[in-house]
TrEMBL record:
InterPro entries documented for this protein: Homeodomain-like_sf, HTH_TetR, Tet_transcr_reg_TetR-rel_C_sf, TetR_C
Classification of source organism: Bacteria, Pseudomonadati, Bacteroidota, Cytophagia, Cytophagales
A Pfam family per the record: TetR_C_13
SUPFAM superfamilies the UniProt entry points to: Homeodomain-like, Tetracyclin repressor-like, C-terminal domain
Protein's UniProt name: Transcriptional regulator, TetR family
Alphabetical UniProt keywords: DNA-binding, Transcription, Transcription regulation
Domain HTH tetR-type: 5-65
The species this protein was found in: Roseivirga pacifica
C-alpha cells in the first residue's frame, strides 16, 4: 500500500461514521479536519472534493452490510435457513448499526433522494441488488418446493427490505434498541406465513 493509499484509508476510517451520522451536506470540513488531525490541504490533496470523500465513505460504510448479507445468502442449507441467516445478521449487527448512526444505505438514500445526485444512483442500485438477492433465495425455495409457488418473490423481497429498514428507522428514531429484535421477529413470522 502506497503512502497516498494509506492516508486515504486513514481519512475514510476516521470520518465515515461522521458522514453516516451527519450526511454529506451536514458534515463540515472542520468535522473532517478535527477527526483526522489533518489540514484542509492534506484532505483535499487526497480527495478531489467533499463529494468524492462522501462517496468513498458510503462505500466504506456499505462494506459491513454487503459482507454480512452475502455471507448469509451463501450459507449452506435450504432457502428458509438463508433467510433466517439474513435476519440473524441484522439482529447481531444492530448494536453496531445503532451506534454508528443507523443504516448507511438508508441514510444515504434519504439524503440522495432530497437532491444529492452523486449518491442517488448508487443507493438505488444497492437496493436493487439487495432485492435481486432476496428474490433469488425465494425462487430457490420455490424450485425446491420449500416455498409456495404462488408467493410473489418481488413483493416478499420488498417486504423483507422495507421491514428491516423500517425497524432500524423506528428503533433509531425512538432510541429504543429493544424494539428492533421484536419487530424483526414479527417480520420473520409474517414472511414465513407468506411463503407457505
Amino acid at each position: 500500500m502506497t503512502k497516498s493509499e494509506h492516508t486515504k484509508r486513514f481519512i475514510i476510517e476516521k470520518v465515515a461514521h461522521i458522514f453516516n451520522k451527519k450526511g454529506a451536506y451536514g458534515t463540515s470540513l472542520s468535522d473532517i479536519t478535527k477527526a483526522t488531525g489533518l489540514t484542509k490541504g492534506a484532505v483535499y490533496g487526497n480527495f478531489q472534493d467533499k463529494d468524492t470523500l462522501a462517496e468513498a465513505c458510503f462505500d466504506h460504510n456499505l462494506k459491513f452490510f454487503q459482507k454480512g448479507l452475502y455471507k448469509a445468502i451463501a450459507t449452506q442449507g435450504n432457502a428458509w435457513h438463508k433467510l433466517e441467516m439474513v435476519f440473524a445478521f441484522y439482529e447481531e449487527g444492530f448494536p453496531f448499526v445503532y451506534a454508528n448512526g443507523g443504516c448507511a444505505l438508508m441514510n444515504s438514500a434519504v439524503e440522495a433522494d432530497d437532491g444529492y445526485p452523486l449518491l442517488k444512483q448508487r443507493t438505488r442500485s444497492t437496493f436493487e441488488n439487495w432485492q435481486k438477492e432476496m428474490e433469488g433465495v425465494i425462487r430457490e425455495g420455490q424450485t425446491t418446493g420449500e416455498f409456495s409457488r404462488t408467493a410473489n418473490p418481488t413483493s416478499i423481497a420488498r417486504l423483507i427490505i422495507g421491514g428491516i429498514e423500517g425497524a432500524i428507522l423506528v428503533a433509531k428514531s425512538t432510541q429504543d434498541m429493544d424494539s428492533f429484535p421484536k419487530t424483526l421477529n414479527h417480520l420473520k413470522t409474517i414472511i414465513e406465513k407468506e411463503l407457505k
